[in-house]
Amino acid sequence: MDQTWRSQQLASQVSRLKSPLVYCVWGWMKELVYSVKVVTRDALLDRILDATESIRNSQRKLQQATRAVHNRAAACVAAGGGIFEIQL
Q: Is residue 7 part of a domain?
């Protein structure tokens, strides 16, 4: 596999982590994966797959997270980019 292509793919994936919603889901996933001590690689992989499935099946919570990000963005725009947390 071409090294340049792999680097570009990695850069693309890292840039997606800048999204507030992805950051929220990543935190949620870490919480699920590490809610119990993981001592083997296989156990970690199982926890990751279970967390992924749990998140995928939690449409209501995903919608709430999406709405929260949208509300924060709208409040930021309304405040002209200034302090907006008190309006939430």
A: no
Q: Pick left, alpha or beta for residue 5 (phi over 0 → left; psi -120 to 50 → alpha; otherwise beta).
A: alpha
Give the model confidence (pLDDT) of 8-33 as tens digits: 665 565 555 567 777 788 889 999 99
Look up the domain containing 68 and give its range: 19-87
User: How far, in Å, CA of 68 to CA of 83, rounded?
Assistant: 17
Can you read off the two tokens belonging to residue 22? Answer: 């992805």
Nearest residue to 25 via CA among 64, 65, 57, 63: 65
Domain count along the chain: 1
For the entire predicted model, the pTM comes to: 0.58
Cα dihedral 18, 16, 31, 33 sign: negative
Q: Dihedral through CA 58, CA 27, CA 18, CA 81, nearest 10?
A: 90
